[in-house]
Amino acid sequence: AELLNEVENFNADNQEQIEAFRIKILGSKGVLKDLFADFKIVPNEQKKEVGQLINELKEKAQEKINELKSNLITTNDKVDDIDLSRPGYPTPLGSRHPISLVRKEIIDIFSRIGFTVSEGPEIEDDWHNFSALNFPPEHPARDMQDTFFVKSDDKEMALRTHTSSVQVRIMENSKPPIRTLSPGRVYRNEAISARAHCFFHQVEGLYIAEKVSFADLKQTLLYFAKEMFGEKTEIRLRPSYFPFTEPSAEMDVSCSVCNSKGCNVCKYTGFLEILGCGMVDPSVLENCGIDSKKYSGFAFGMGVERIAMLKYKVNDLRLYSEGDIRFLEQFKSAF
Ligand code: PHE
Predict the structure, then answer these.
(1) Which site in 74, 96, 105, 162 is 20 to 30 Å from 334, CA atoms measured?
(2) Mean pLDDT, rounded, for 287-293
(3) pLDDT surpassing 60 at residue 135
(4) Strand pairing category for 178-187 and 116-117
C-alpha cells in the first residue's frame, strides 16, 4: 500500500527522472521483480489478495509512466520551447540529368561567342528535314538517316532526323548575319543497343555572314573543344560527306581518358568522333532565300549523348533514357 501511494504521487519533469522511476519499479532488478520473487513464500490463503495488489501496483506504475511521458511531450511542444537554431530536416534534392548538363554547357560555350538558341518542331515535313537541305527525292543520301515516317491526313511527315531542320526555318525567316544553335531531340529508326538508340539529342550550329571561311569553322570548333574538354584537347578534321555542306568534315577530339588503363571510351584509338561539320552548300542558302554570292556560312552538328559519354565516361547509351535512379543520382554534385 505504501508503494502504491508512492507510485501515485510520483512526479517528474524530465525524461531522465521518468526513466529512473521505471527502472526502480519495473526494471529487471526493480521492486516488482522482488515482490514477484517473494510471492512464492506467501501462504496460499493470502496468495489471491497479495497477487492482486502486486498486479495493481504494476498497472498503476505503467499508467503513471505513460501519463508522465505524454505530459512531457505536450509541455515540450509549447511554442516558447522550440529551438529555432536547430538545423532543419534535410530536404531530398534531385539532380540534373547528364544530357541537360551537357546541353547547357555546350550552349554556354557558344553563347559566349555570340550564338543564340532556336528551336523547332519534332514532327517535320519533308522540305525542312530533307529537300531544302539538298537531299533530292529518292536520293540514297536519305538512307544515311533511317527515318520514322508519320502519316498525316494529306502530307507525309517524319520525326526529324536532325535539328538542321530548325536551321532551315531560321534561314527562311531571318537575314544574315545569323549565329544560332538548335538543340533538341532527334529520331532515327535504329535498333537500340549500347551504341545506338532510336532517339538522341543534338546541338547543331549555324553561322552565316559575309566572307565566312573554313578557317573560321576550324577555329570555332577548336575553341569549343578546348572549353569543353580542357586546354590540352586536340582536334582532327577528316573529310566527309553531307548533302548540305561542301566541303564537309567530321571532327574527332583527343580522348582525355585514354592514357588510363581500360579506356572504354575510344578503345585506345586516341581520338573520338564527336561532330559533323562543313561549309553550307550554296544551293541550301538559295533554297532558303539567302544570296549565296554575298553570304557564306558554316554549320556543325553534334550528339549530346556522345559528348556526355566522353565527359562522364558512360559508354552505354541506354543509361541516358532509362531513368534509373542509381545512375542519375551520381550526377548530384554536377551542375
Ligand atoms: N545534320 C548532321 C547529322 O545529323 C550533322 C551536321 C550538321 C553535319 C551540320 C554537317 C553540318 O548528322
Answers:
(1) 162
(2) 95
(3) yes
(4) parallel
Query: Which ligand 1 atom lies nearest to the CA of residue 163?
Result: 1
Give dist(CA 140, CA 91) in Å, integer: 55
What pLDDT score was predicted for residue 23? 85
Residue 32, Ramachandran bin (φ over 0: left; ψ between -120 and 50: alpha; else beta): alpha
Residue nearest (by alpha carbon) to ligand 1 atom 6: 301
Gap between the Cα atoms of 218 and 208, Å rounded: 15
Q: Which residue out of 204, 207, 208, 296 has the highest number of ligand 1 atoms within 8 Å of its CB and is therefore the one to mutate?
A: 204
pLDDT of residue 164: 95
Query: 110, 164, 170, 181: which to mutate for ligand 1, most atoms within 8 A of CB?
Result: 164
What type of residue is 12?
Answer: A
Q: What is the pLDDT of residue 221?
A: 97
CB-defined site of ligand 1, < 6 Å: 162, 164, 204, 242, 245, 276-278, 299-301
> Which spans in 77-185 are helix H?
98-111, 126-129, 164-173
Give 170 or 1, the one with higher predicted confidence.
Answer: 170
Tell me the percentage of the chain whose pLDDT exceeds 70.
93
Q: Is 2 annotated as a binding residue?
A: no
* Inter-residue contact 236 to 274 (CB < 8 Å): no
Sequential DSSP letters for 168-200? HHHHHH--SSEEEEEEEEEE------SS--SEE
Q: How confident is the prediction for the chain on average, in pLDDT? A: 87
